[in-house]
Specification:
The strands form 3 sheets. A 5-stranded parallel β-sheet has the order 2-1-3-4-5, sandwiched between helices. It has 10 helices and 15 strands. The chain folds into 2 domains: about 130 residues, Response regulator (Rossmann fold), CATH 3.40.50.2300; about 220 residues, Phosphatase 2c, domain 1, CATH 3.60.40.
């Protein structure tokens, strides 16, 4: 006996002998059977207790089989509207077959009925019904999983937002502008600024591997590591060494992140730059010149004792620097227009009156808010300008 045994089948036929024969056939096959002699009563029985399958005679006085099916298929209750139905017809013509299917029948059997054919088609429809229900359950489970994921992502988003600075630091004589656009609710990019022991301020940015919640966890760790590193050390190179050591001790070489930091003395305008596998720092000079400072060390976490080299640079009034993640390179939809650090350097507007205008000018060209296309990668950027 199949897995569809003991199905509840309703036989609707105005001929009593036909109903009796069908009931006996179904009982011998292990199914429970109810009988009904007309369409109107069948509708009442179905609404009271929907059967597993419906055997419906096409030709009946009053409501015929086609009309019964049309009403069932338009019912608001899916348990009623989706009942498998096999039409029983005494007409063997193509026109009759088309009429059965157009009425909403899942299958049909012509009279005189071949018992083996009928039972095979019943088993097929019951199996399809079982598969449909299983798919519905899986869809319900998937929908519940999606809702849970959205709740988790919403919570992660709030957590990450609390880690990302929401307003620039109070830095007299300097302007700071930021941008953060994750691919989904959370991302793998993060930036920040921290006071150092020698009165300098450490601007830093990091990009963890991957996207979504896993990458967001790396950003949480990154903020903690940079915080501890800046508290204990007074040079950006040693801060990077500490972050690399702690990161590697946690993950081994299984994960990594790129990073760059700028230790800025606000009073003198002198800065030390250290990069680890990160896109170059871009500098815009008030006189129209541009510069870039490349990362020399590999990404954090890859090797145990990388050599971090500091590049010293000075900033005069009107000069600015740009820290950013590689999501800025992937913003162009056309691969032929895909950005490089060199092309990005040429987009720097040395005449921008503020850090906000400088950053906005770049983003307007490569990642406008109204572009309509989802970003292919997380994007974060930080512009710092020495004001007059």
């Amino acid at each position: 006996m199949s897995n569809n045994s003991r199905a509840q089948i309703l036989v609707v036929d105005d001929d009593a002998i036909s109903r009796k024969i069908l009931a006996q056939l179904l009982a011998s096959a292990g199914h429970d059977c109810r009988e009904c002699e007309d369409g109107a009563k069948a509708l009442q029985l179905i609404h009271a207790k929907p059967p597993s399958l419906l055997l419906l005679d096409f030709d009946m006085p009053g409501l015929n089989g086609a009309e019964v099916l049309r009403r069932l298929r338009s019912d608001a209750d899916p348990a009623v509207a989706q009942i498998p139905a096999i039409m029983l017809t005494g007409h063997g013509s193509e026109e009759s077959e088309v009429s059965c299917l157009q009425a909403g029948a899942d299958d049909f059997v012509t009279k005189p009925i071949n018992a083996a054919v009928l039972l095979a088609r019943i088993e097929t429809q019951l199996r399809l019904r079982s598969m449909r229900r299983q798919l519905e359950r899986q869809n319900d489970e998937l929908e519940e999983w999606r809702r849970n994921l959205e709740r988790d992502l919403a919570a992660a988003r709030l957590t990450q937002q609390s880690l990302i600075p929401q307003k620039p630091p109070p830095l007299p004589g300097w302007q700071v502008a930021t941008c953060y656009r994750p691919v989904i609710q959370v991302g793998g990019d993060i930036y920040g600024w921290l006071p150092m022991k020698d009165s300098r301020i450490l601007f830093w940015i990091a990009d963890g591997t991957g996207h979504g919640a896993a990458a967001a966890l790396l950003t949480t760790l990154a903020k903690l590591l940079f915080h501890y590193g800046s508290v204990e050390h007074d040079a950006p190179a040693t801060v990077m060494e500490r972050v690399n050591s702690d990161f590697r001790s946690i993950f081994g070489a299984r994960s990594f992140m790129t990073a760059m930091c700028v230790a800025l003395d606000p009073a003198s305008g002198h800065a030390s730059v250290v990069g680890a596998g990160h896109p170059p720092l871009l500098v815009s000079r008030d006189n129209g010149a541009t510069e870039s400072i490349a990362s020399i060390a590999p990404p954090l976490g890859l090797i145990e004792h990388p050599e971090f080299t500091e590049t010293v640079i000075g900033f005069e009034t009107g000069d600015a620097f740009l820290l950013y993640t590689d999501g800025l390179f992937g913003s162009a939809k056309d691969e032929r227009r895909r950005l490089t650090p060199q092309r990005l350097e040429k987009m720097l507007d040395h005449s921008a009156p503020s850090a906000e205008a400088l950053l906005k000018g770049i983003l307007t060209q490569v990642a406008p808010d109204n572009a309509g296309d989802a970003l292919p990668d997380d994007l974060a950027a930080l512009a710092v300008r020495r004001a007059a």
